[in-house]
Specification:
It is built from 17 helices and 15 strands. It has helices spanning 9-20, 62-65, 78-83, 101-115, 126-129, 139-154, 170-173, 181-198, 211-219, 243-267, 290-303, 305-313, 318-324, 333-339, 389-401, 428-446, 489-500, and strands at residues 55-59, 119-123, 158-164, 204-209, 222-226, 229-233, 273-278, 283-285, 346-349, 355-359, 366-369, 406-410, 451-457, 476-479, 484-487. The strands form four sheets. It has an eight-stranded parallel barrel, surrounded by six helices. Strand 14 (476-479) and strand 15 form a beta hairpin. It binds ligand GBH. Ligand GBH is lined by residues 61, 64, 209-210, 213, 217, 222, 233, 279, 349, 351, 382, 410, 457, 464, 473.
């Protein structure tokens, strides 16, 4: 990583570490160099340290970075179709080249190594492995991920593959996609196959990324009002289903989760761990009283009834079934058992609170507090700022479902990142965002909530779905014309956090 002028790497580490614990930093010039490779250990009793064994990583997804969409036998995905449909993506962008990671993965692994990253969460593109979703596996597709994983292991980075980050093979969409129960079965076959092939190299697999995003936003879309303007959010395949059909698609998605866990258990090496990575809708108690905390738990359980709640409880809540009424999904008891197949960990993608709540005498037990018009937000229109979600999300998951291991599988924000005349990308807002979210996660970790690790979204700027390349979430800046990667100041922030295992 390019170092900032005038600071030696270790000298900068020490100064930042000292400042973070409130000690007076010595003048930078006077700081002695610590031998390279000697990672500073968190000082005992350092109030900002994470527990020993807490682990750090960055995340990406296949469609957002790989490009090479027609190479080595890759089949088309619903996102290829969607991005080539006029007016769906801002500026008419597509991900045919994206970050060209398919060809530059070795450089990208090096970027991670320079940041001191211990874990990498990436996704495997289903249509590279099974171009038609089912049938004969494509050896060349498999080989790409084998080379990537080997490059990671060589760099001392633990691979955490995600099996489904929304790029459904188009051939399966043509047969009904997530509206068809067969897609759940096809996913399990693919998941079992990949885990069988890679569990000699990867010990942890995330099954499915963000159920709400690809099911609800892909099959219904959502309207939000921002600054008085109506904004529509929609993902591939861009359908607008009826309530009954949408609820059935949700059911097939959680069924896919359960079936894939069973398939992974059947084919992977003993000891392989797996679980979903979900964007839990998180209720935050507006005022921390026992009544409001309970209200926030109830609200969180109900808001996630179609996804994490049914996966972890093995039944749809009474309120979910009552609310959906005649449009409730059709399911069998046997399916509920499959959906609740025990997982090893829960991944949580946490960007924002879904809402604040207080306790209420009303039937539901909580009163949602709307975000004030003046509530601050980050650059993305949907991104209200509420770092407390990073405490409450894992805490609710632990108190509602007694989960043994939790990872934060995504956390980050978009920013208006520009390279200055002197070559720096000084993303003060992203650093503020990361520090405050880490501080709330630190509270959870030190109160005994079993959070095992944190993945920053994202390693580098990439194709941000409907926002195309206009929305930059990376710790590393990418010039999409030249593919030049430039670490932002937040990359240095993150390197320091990792090196110190602490909020810095
Ligand atoms: C994640 O989705 C994705 O996993 C990742 O691929 C993506 O690049 C990244 O985050 C950044 O967006 O939540 O009610 O405001 C983020 C979660 C869910 C954010 C849907 C936008 C819109 C509606 N996304 N959300 S809401």
């Amino acid at each position: 990583m390019r170092m900032r002028k005038g600071f030696t790497r270790r000298g900068f580490a020490k100064a930042a570490g000292a400042a973070a614990v409130g000690a007076t930093a010595a003048p930078l010039a006077g700081i002695a160099e610590t031998p390279a490779g000697d990672r500073p250990n968190p000082a005992p009793g350092n109030a900002t340290s994470f527990p020993q064994g807490f682990t750090w990583g960055v995340a990406t997804s296949a469609f957002q970075i790989e490009g090479a969409v027609k190479e080595d036998g890759r089949g088309a995905s619903i996102w290829d179709t969607y991005t080539h449909t006029p007016r769906k993506i801002r500026n008419g962008d597509n991900a045919d080249v994206a970050n060209d990671h398919y060809h530059r993965y070795r450089d990208d692994v090096k970027l991670m190594r320079d940041m001191g990253v211990r874990n990498y969460r990436f996704s495997i593109a289903w249509p590279r492995i099974f171009p038609d979703g089912i049938g004969q596996p494509n050896a060349k597709g498999l080989d790409f991920y084998r080379r990537l994983i080997d490059a990671l292991l060589e760099a001392g980075i633990e691979p955490f593959p995600t099996l489904y980050h929304w790029d459904l093979p188009q051939a399966l969409q043509d047969k009904g996609g997530w509206q068809s129960r067969d897609t759940a079965k096809a996913f399990a076959d693919y998941a079992g196959y990949v885990a069988g092939r890679f569990s000699d190299r990867a010990r942890n697999f995330f099954t499915v990324n963000e159920f709400y995003s690809f099911v609800d936003l892909g099959h219904r879309g959502a309207e939000m009002t921002v600054d008085g303007k109506k904004v529509r959010i929609e993902f591939a395949p861009g359908l607008k289903l009826s309530n009954a059909a949408l609820n059935q698609a949700r059911h097939h998605a959680v069924l896919a989760q359960g079936l894939s866990v069973q398939a992974i258990r059947a084919s992977a090496k003993a000891g392989t761990k797996c679980g979903p990575a979900d964007n839990l809708s998180t209720a935050v108690p507006a005022i921390e009283t026992p009544e409001n905390i309970r209200a926030a738990e109830i609200a969180t359980r109900e808001m996630n009834a179609g996804y994490l709640t049914v996966m972890l409880e093995g039944k749809y809540t009474d309120a979910y079934l009552a609310n959906t009424g005649k449009d409730a999904p059709k399911f069998t008891d046997d399916e509920l058992k499959i959906i609740a197949s025990p997982v090893d960990f829960i991944g949580l993608n946490i960007y924002r609170p879904a809402l604040y709540v207080v306790a209420s005498e009303q039937a539901r037990g909580f009163r949602p507090i709307p975000f004030n018009k003046s509530h601050p937000r980050m650059l993305s229109l949907w991104h209200v700022l509420g770092p407390e979600a990073m405490y409450w999300a894992p805490r609710h998951v632990q108190s509602l479902w007694k989960t043994r291991e939790i990872y934060i599988t995504e956390s980050g924000c978009a920013a208006n990142d520009e390279i200055s005349a002197s070559g720096n990308v000084d993303d003060s807002d992203r650093i503020m965002y990361l520090r405050n979210h880490l501080a709330h996660l630190h509270r959870a970790a030190t109160e005994g909530v079993p959070v095992k690790g944190y993945f920053a979204w994202s390693l580098m700027d990439n194709f941000e779905w409907s926002d195309g390349f206009t929305s930059r979430f990376g710790l590393v800046h990418v010039d999409f014309k030249t593919q030049k990667r430039t670490p932002k100041l937040s990359a240095e922030y993150f390197r320091q956090a990792i090196a110190n295992n602490a909020v810095v």
